[in-house]
Write a structure and sequence with these properties.
The chain has 229 residues and is mainly α. The chain has helices at residues 3-22, 40-55, 61-74, 82-98, 106-116, 120-123, 127-131, 134-151, 157-168, 173-184, 192-203, 207-212, 214-228.
Length: 229
């Protein structure tokens, strides 16, 4: 598998995670058809991801409850795929019902390290501290897709500047997401459009975000320079 294929697979995976972790807060523009989220192939892929997460005990109760609501809503779609869709939905619900939450919250500990650069989250902090960050991490995982779409060369420059940039520079999740992306798929930064747009966002971040994250921003810039060498 070449780098482009790996990147495409990564982007598809992040799309699935955005559904799983923030399905409860996704906005629905007027032209958006909610049935898009219930396409057969998409549900099959969600089933695969959740099965892996379940075996790793990485599904917490918040995510589980939101997925139950999402899946139950899919039962009411009337089309030629209803029977197959409901079979997949039943499979996923079984997976969720059988899943347990890791008592040590390893998934969220690793995500916190990845998104903050602070290794202490892995071993030092209590489970209560980790639990207090679960909602923030779920939203950060969901925000990754927005960052990936904004920096992609498939997004026109005008669209990046007018639609994405104003929101990115004011969003505190940007730093967490870009650091996670750099750890998960560093080859993306070798694309000049992706790299330059990221620099553009970092250089125009809200002053309050910069003031509170000076060291972290330097670490991110240093890390991405290593990636592109």
């Amino acid at each position: 598998m070449n780098e482009l294929e790996k990147q495409k697979k990564y982007l598809n995976y992040k799309y699935l995670l955005s559904i799983i972790f923030i399905i409860d807060i996704l906005e629905e523009p007027e032209e958006f058809d909610p049935s898009d989220f219930y396409e057969i192939d998409l549900l099959k892929n969600i089933r695969i991801v959740l099965d892996v997460f379940s075996k790793e005990e990485s599904i917490n109760n918040i995510v589980k409850e939101n997925m139950f609501k999402f899946l139950n809503a899919g039962r009411y779609i009337e089309d030629e795929n209803k029977e197959e869709r409901n079979e997949i939905i039943n499979d996923i619900i079984t997976i969720l019902n059988n899943s347990k939450e890791d008592k040590n919250l390893i998934f969220y500990r690793e995500e916190l390290v990845k998104r903050t650069g602070d290794i202490r989250y892995l071993f030092k902090y209590s489970n209560d501290v980790i639990r207090n960050n679960i909602d923030r991490i779920n939203k950060s995982i969901g925000f990754d897709l927005t960052v990936l779409e904004a920096l992609s060369e498939e997004t026109k420059e005008e669209e990046f500047i007018n639609l994405y940039l104003p929101d990115l520079v004011d969003n505190a999740f940007y730093l967490s997401s870009i650091n996670a992306i750099m750890k998960e798929c560093p080859s993306l930064f070798k694309n000049s459009t992706f790299y330059n747009r990221n620099i553009c966002v970092l250089n125009n971040l809200n002053s309050a975000i910069v003031e509170n994250n000076k060291k972290f921003i330097k670490t991110i810039k240093k890390g991405q320079k290593k990636v592109i060498k």
